[in-house]
Amino acid sequence: MLAAQTVWIILHHARSNPYRPLSNPRKSCTGKEARASMSAQPELTLGRVETWLSQRGIAAGPEEDGAVFMGFPGCDIGVYLHDDEAALVVAGMWRGRPAADRLDEMRAFIDAQHRSTYGPDLAVTPAHDSSRLLLSTQMVAYIGAGMSDAQLDAFMDMGLGMTRAFFSTVEERFPELVTWEED
What we know:
This protein is an alpha+beta fold. The chain is built from four helices and five strands, in the order ααβββαββα. The chain has a five-stranded antiparallel β-sheet with strand order 1-2-3-5-4, with helices on both faces. A hairpin with a 2-residue loop joins β1 (67-72) and β2 (75-82). The longest helix has 25 residues, at 149-173. The radius of gyration is 17 Å and the shape is elongated. The N and C termini lie close together (12 Å).
């Protein structure tokens, strides 16, 4: 089970991520809701996310603070429903904590990743310990009134896969920052 501090950090950073979209794509430029042109989708719940994870053999902790958390080699990932934006969010946090004096180097690395990959959105922010940095990721799917099983499958597969791939890239680029042993 993830430590309470890790849970708080993932939720705090993901929910206050500066890369959060500024507008809701389901609304027109006048702010009115766009007309539904597709069939209604099943309601998306964290229970459906937990079922998806268990069907794929991915161990996740029980729902906590409105999110489901998983620990992977090198990173922790949380999945939650963002009520204000009607969105499903996959947010990751790398276990490595670069020194704060490496901020420019981490920003340059993240900028290069943003230019060369589709996702996830990446951020570098101060960690709880202000002498360290936190590398985090976020992928968002706007769900509107629901999400089909196929949409959930595609987004979760992409969200978890791309998040883990990014953190693997970080470990390859900065092996000196890998200071933990895998569970």
